[in-house]
Queue: 4 jobs
Job 1
Amino acid sequence: MTTNSSSSPTTADSAAKIPIDIISEEEMALIEAALAAAAATAMPASHLHRNSKSLRSITLLSKRGICACTSTGPSDIEDSGRACGSSPQKNKRNVVLESFLNRFRKGRGLSVSDLTGTEWCEKQTEFILLFGKPKRTKAMKAGSARHVVLEEEVIKRVKVQVESAEDAWALKFMNFIVGSNQLLFDGLTRELPLVGFVEGVWMVGIIDELRMPVSESTKFPVLVDTKTRVRPTLPGEPQKRNGRFQLMCYKYMWDSLVADEFPTKKFFDFFSLNPNHILSPEIRDNTTKSGFPSETLSDVVRYFGNSCRSLPMAHDQLLLRYELQEDHSLLGEDEFVYDPDLVKDQIKSCLEFWLGKREASYPPMEELWKCKFCKFASVCPINSDPDDSPIKKGEDIPSPDLTPK
């Protein structure tokens, strides 16, 4: 049966067929926080101004690929493949600073949001990593709550207690298996978790929606992402480009899972997981009810691999939807074709920043209006000259909707 993506279940029979999405207590807390529009604590703007000199100093220390030299200590030089200044000298110690990937995503992997944030502005991403995310806006909270509602139209959430990292990962794989089966049999699924090894880096993400085309004889799932808008207007090109990049990352990950053997050993090693860990009774009970009884994390991963091999590649046509937050009316759609070379090049560019191969870059000159809406603009080196500040130049540019997923 193919499910119409624009309609939600209305009868008892259809509701009974809705799959179950197992979530942890931590995830449930996040959902409840989104629905309640709870605000996160942020660094006051006045504090940022008072510490602007300190922020700039720490930012200098955060630059990757640059050696910090001191005149004390023995001349034991860390092998980094690059020198500090000229050739090493006695009584000098070269300290190679860790990459942002190792400092902030070690054992966790990069998220697709990490990549899209980098594409938007690498310098802003650097500030967020060093000093924390600014306070979430009302629009961001509304966007998060909307995605919860869309998911609950097709998937019933069930709260399950997580007792270990192995349990948490088992839940992610379970939700992928259940969601992909729903896609194959019903033609629609939402909030599907992904994990994959992309360009030598572990990456995670959640696809908003996958649809099976109704009219085509060969079924390739279409990836869809819904963005909510405060204003009844479509976004500018930089935001559309960022959304397209996000969807192309998901297709890249999906196609890799479908086409390649999942690197199980690398996965267990990177995330420091015990494949023979006995899962909690609740999780084992739910795997049995879902049709793939599992005792250990290794069992679930094996079922996950089998599920991936049964799936087709994603459709080359990708779809971005824009809704008005006020009444969820459709403002417009952006249907575009997947560009494998473009997405690979962009991912590699983002990874240069995350792997410490180069310093954070700034947006191009024509996109410096972004600074007007950045909480770190007052302490960013690009705005050091107040008379030539992009903030002043961008005063007449309408505000973009920067609501993340």
Job 2
Amino acid sequence: MGGSLWISHGATEASFGGRSFIAVLRLALLLPTLRVSGQFMGKPLDCQKTCVCASNIVSCSRVNLTNVPTTLPQYTAVLDLSFNAITRLRAEWTPVSLDRLHSLHLSHNGLTFLSSEAFANVKKLRCLDLSSNYIRQLDEFIFEPLEHLEVLLLYSNRISQIDRTAFSGLVSLQRLYLSHNQISRFPLELVKERSRLDSLRLLDVSSNRIKTLPLNELQALPAWIKNGLYFHNNPLPCSCEVHEVVARWYIKELSSAVDFRGSHTCVLPGHQKEKIAILDLDKVYLNCSEVTAMDKKAFLEQFLVLDCDTRERNVTKSWALPGNIPVPPAHKIADDGSLRIGPLKAEDSGVYTCYATSESLNETVYVTVVVFNSTEIGGLENLKTAYTTLIGCLVSLVLVLFYLYLTPCHYTCCPGQRLEKGDPRDSLHSSTVSITHAHLQTGQERPEGGGFDNKHGAFLQPKDRLEQNGRLNPIGEEDEEWRGDSRGRRRSDAGSVSSVSSDTPMVV
């Protein structure tokens, strides 16, 4: 019996030891999960030791946080988490909706990851500061929930890829800072006519890696957009087109060109990659033409629309005609402030003045109009006449050349035709003017004036050449040839045929 008790006691001890081992193993496996969960969720907000809570402001700056504190008050309006070590902003960083939060500061955290749902519970944000982090790309629709956002700070990151839909939904965005990144493509869709953010008035892409700019599209933008479009300090290749854009913006006194005049540089071609000021290209290097203020040019009887292109968008605009004359009712001012004049007369030339006023701006825009003293139709007709005359001259020249060089020659005097020795067609009459056969038969006298009644200048046909062989014989053989002629023609007859009156035309 004692043996049985000993065995029972040993079995119980072994069973207890096995259960303890299993419990310890489970606890060991559970500890990393608790640590990870704690790392994801962070610690509860402590307004006494780590953070400063003042009314609706929560400031947890420079306290070495690795996660966003939990249990944030729902009345929080400003949350400052800058200068910490929060490297990933996950979707669950705030499990509750913070409807009153309008400013979120996450600069200098070493952020590398933004969840696609990171802003799902903070839809009322108006200012988001993500500057001075390690963000490399902006995925599609990343900021779409933030329809009330007005200011987005993304400068001093490592952004090299931006999806074209990354900023979709930001219908209230006014200022976007993307400077000091690694962007190589200018985000034209943000400012272009049909795809731009309607409220955007400042876009900073300076100090990036942009090598090409859509210059024509940028030049066509209204002045209130160009005034806040900053693209200085990019490795743009030097060209007169770049110089013209910057120079026109500078003449217009746009802030983006005036405030950073010395920072608008370009790279000269060559191995040294030397940088120079863009506005100096018209002096030494590329010898670009000087840019002056643009004028409006038109013809008589035309209508013209003058734009009051101001640096501010919402301003009140009024116009004055040359000589500071108030605008008469005949000239219509559109809703956008543009002035329509016409039909134009010569006296409509001059400087038109637009006065733009608002609470923060008083701007004067001058537009010079030059009216040519002719109609556009008349100018086109003169141009057509000149072209017609030129074409007629060219066609005439071609026909003359064709006649001289391409028309086949059927006469013995043509160059390149050789006659056999003793050919009776080798005669002086191949280039002689013949008198009509009627005069030879009737022997009619010449009328007064020394000419014939009917004068015909033509080459002799081959038959006539055989009958009228009138070769010159400078060595005295002429008498023998005339004596041996089968027709017995006299020298006086030959002389009368070969001699022509002075007013008979010669055809060669």
Job 3
Amino acid sequence: MTMEMLACDEPSQTTANDNQVLPITTPTTPPKPSNKLTLIPLIFLIYFEVAGGPYGEEPAVKAAGPLFAILGFLIFPFIWSIPEALITAELSTTFPGNGGFVIWAHRAFGRYIGSLMGTFKYLSVVINIAAFPALCINYMHKLFPVFSSGRPRNLAICISTVVLSFINFTGLTIVGYVAVLLGVVSLLPFIVMSVMAIPKISPQNWISLGQKSVKKDWNLYFNTLFWNLNFWDNVSTMAGEVEKPQKTFPIALLCAVILTCAAYIVPLMAVSGVGDLNQLEWESGYMADAARMISGQWLKYWIEIGAVLSNIGLFEAQLSSSCFQLLGMAELGFMPKLFGRRSKWFNTPYVGILLSTAIILSVSFLDFTNIIGAANFLYSLGMLLEFASYLRLRSIYPEIKRPFRVPIRLPGLIVMCLIPSAFLIFIMAIATKVVWLISGFMIVGAVLWCFLIEICKSRKWLAFNQDVDE
């Protein structure tokens, strides 16, 4: 069984005992039995879906100074990460199937909105993935200057993308345990650095508003927080691959939230508390330079190696979620049946991996500043649909059996969703004109793609699984 779903879009009659259960819909071709994800690998997969370590949090200090950076990473999880994680836990345990948020939007608003949600989220994630091989090479060229530019750099990006995609092909269980290993190894140098920094910390540095000569860049500040603390719902697309998802998901999400927040705030306080502040030096990668200042060159190298491992973990986790999303959409009849095919050797959705890898390679050499901004714009649209889907599902199926339930009534849930929704609208509003233009083209493309899929299905140009609504 890979999903529990309603047989139709209309709400069914509820009962007074709060035990209404959704009828089961199985895919046309059930996958062969496979090893399921257990708790520890799932925790680290979620961790790499979201963070992968404190790499990339430095621009928050550059943008607004230490105090606002610390407050941001302390407060933002409560208004963004925790609500998103709670919603993911409830809906993933109620609808435990591959496809995740696509299932939720489909159940709430119908087939087309579900398909549009899937397209928005898939594009945002797969374009985001393309940054990680390039970031790996950026760190490697500090040790091997030959990778700094030109053909060697481009060849290294292509080879690393293909190799990392092959690791994903070998199976989600292997990817999960690789994530555990990468998580431990990449976090260790920050633990060492934070401990060694304790005698050198000046607490008054933490309340600094930054240098007066440096203008506050709130666009960079909020985008840095958003970039480092989103994608909690990505793991929902692999719910059908998790052992006992009703029990495992809530625990895994709670542990991942704690791990992620600690991995950001502890190194940030350690480094910002040491020495005199030069705000302009706080670019991505500054943590490695700070490690050299705190303990020596050896720790700088260790953190740079950890950065490469972190980017590998991010690549593997997000590629897994994107290809299992396509598999789930194929099972639902939203994508051609071929996207539901699994490898005979590893039981992985190899067609989704191949498509995602092709897209990653095609955009790997572009300037990511505006492209990633547009990907975040699409992700924001998808999250607004997700919040709306959650509230509607709570409204139209109040008595459905929920293995995990956010212990708040509907009016409180509306408030809980309005706060992060306001932030999403703010992030979209402050986007640059170029990002708005790119996003507009991508949105039009997503809408046209959904119409094309409907035409292919209605005219039987491609084979589809039976629609769950039929």
Job 4
Amino acid sequence: MEKRMNASLQRPEIKLQSLKEDIKEFFKISGWEKKLQNAVYSELSVFPLPSHPAAPPEHLKEPLVYMRKAQGSWEKRILKSLNSMCTELSIPLARKRPVGEQKELLNKWNEMGTDEPDLSLFRPVYAPKDFLEVLINLRNPNYENGDSLSFRTHLGLIQVPLKVKDIPELKEFFVELGLTTGQLGIDDSTQVPPELFENEHVRIGQKVLAEQDSAAAQQYIRQGSPTALRAELWALILNISSQPEDILYYEQLKTNVIQHDLLVDSLIYKDVKLTASNDDYYFVFEDYLYQVLLCFSRDTSVLGHFAYNSASPPKSYIRGKLGLEEYAVFYPPNGVIPFHGFSMYVAPLCFLYHEPSKLYQIFREMYVRFFFRLHSISSHPSGIVSLCLLFETLLQTYLPQLFYHLREIGAQPLRISFKWMVRAFSGYLATDQLLLLWDRILGYNSLEILAVLAAAVFAFRAVNLMEVTSLAAAEAVLADLSTLKVMPLLQIFLFATVT
């Protein structure tokens, strides 16, 4: 962007005498003013607000010491699992592929799904249920002997005192989801004539795209995105525009995949085979998933998000140089070790983007803005700990009979809903419903809606759940979410039935 701006400013109509005014005018005419606004807006959406000037740098990552310690312990456990797999299988973390293997991989790049490597000895480094056990054991040492009423009366699995929104605060935050506001996902149904809402909403969406304003797009998408405009609207909100250098960067990542084999490649293959390949919606995108995820693992630009992520990228040391920082490298290069279900963060995006480098950019931006929070231990309102606590608090407060019943029969609701939230419901909802949900994640720049939807699902199935007598029976009642309509569930739960 900087290079293109400098080139633009060399134009003859910009004179030294009136430089400031000429530049302002030129920015307006050329469209650069909007591009700069979008770039600033994008930064503000991602990075946290400035903290106290005296605060140490780790506070930017996570202000609570016990959260930082828990995340550090969890990372050590993941690395131990990865290293033991290396030792057991006698496989190096990384190796250069022989020339013949490079050629073979290049030739089958667009049909990697046909490849059937023997992955029987590989296992996911961890699954969501392993992560949940860690979160259940989280404790704030300052509260161990405390007698805070609100803390002691929380009967859920999460036992840390974080501030989460109650229903009135959620109503205010998600005000555009109110019953009097038109919604795609409700007001575009076959029973509602399109001239009442849908036609006008599409017209406004086209206008927003013509204006190329990220902030306006984010506000607009809170009422849902028309299917035909969604790909462009999401790209605008995420400030993604495919430039030649972006395509070149993707090709360089591809070259890195061709040249070097990483242990995490096998974990990615295994995860796609176990999840997306068996999914009725996503199995057709198997090749795309390999391409995107293998390139993602090599992308060192992803390391930038660790500035505001409670996690830290794992390090590997050159053989014989353990502990010497000058011989350390981040492993994998992007600092992210995939877990069971990781590929489902990419799968829904394949419906929207069919050009690999664009699909890649969108996924990377979605990950560094949102998805990393679903598998990191932090106190952030969109972090998985807060989402779990919000879900449990909503159920305990507004559906107490259901909550206590499930708790009494050993079917704590979080044990069922955790897998939905950690995957942002990908693989559980029908794709059209999932995309409507992700519209709102982008629109509100928040993952809190995942916890609200999880609570709404329990409310919707409350009558059946009150009759179950075991965790297995409760899981059976909630086994299939593919027929659910997301927006009516959210509206009813937030604005209709709860006072």
